[in-house]
UniProtKB/TrEMBL annotation:
Residues 8-257 form the ABC transporter domain. The keyword Iron does not apply. The lineage of its organism: Bacteria, Pseudomonadati, Pseudomonadota, Alphaproteobacteria, Hyphomicrobiales. It comes from the Bacteria. Coiled coil: none annotated. It holds the Pfam family BCA_ABC_TP_C. This is Monosaccharide-transporting ATPase.
Amino acid sequence: MTEPTKMLDVTDISLRFGGVKALTDISFHVDEGEIFSLIGPNGAGKTSMLNCISGRYKPQEGSILFDGKDLLSRSINDRAKIGIGRTFQNLALFSHMSVIDNILVGRHHMMKNNFLTGMLYWVGGAQKEEAAARAEIEDIIDFLEIQHVRNEPAGSLSYGLRKRVELARAIAIKPKLILLDEPMAGMNLEEKEDMARYIIELNEQYGITVVMIEHDMGVVVDISHRVAVLDFGQKIAEGLPEEVVEDEQVKTAYLGIDDFSMDDEKEVG
């Protein structure tokens, strides 16, 4: 049996803000083709960990490798160029811009912008590139079933639709790895089912590896291949989702109860 290929390798990451320890010696890896979930209570350090991977935060200690290459020395834009996409817990859309223009923003780093060749490129290639980009974006719009709002201002949409638009923008960079920060927060049951389906299809049909923060334990168990649990900035468990949610330390430290099981139909806030 072929060993899985590590896409992301996080080793001994520690992050401090002044005297506050946000992360302490966090290590885990994500294999190519996985849906890997980070779970834990509010303030556990989950978003801080995503911010270290995406480049918003720079940890004081540790290393992060992406496809075997150092990630921490790269800028946020460089990380997008090598195939890391990101969505946010709090929506980061341009409210006044149309859905399609918001998605086009996700491709800005892929446009040719060399100063010396810029004028010649604009004459010879820009129109072709823009046409190709728009064709790919139309495919994303079809995939996420947002054709009916493609020309609407993003700020006028329902919360669930805005979540889809932000996912579309992250997909537009053609990521190998996508970081999803609470993609289903604030959604009703039907919207969550749709988002879960999109994430599974991104992973299985498009081959995109996923690292996801999510509080809905039903979703985590249903769609994740592996799970890591953070509490007070430390990793307290890692493994298969059905095993992790039955771990006594996870039940107590993360869920705060002693009788949680994967059969419970409740969300963890």
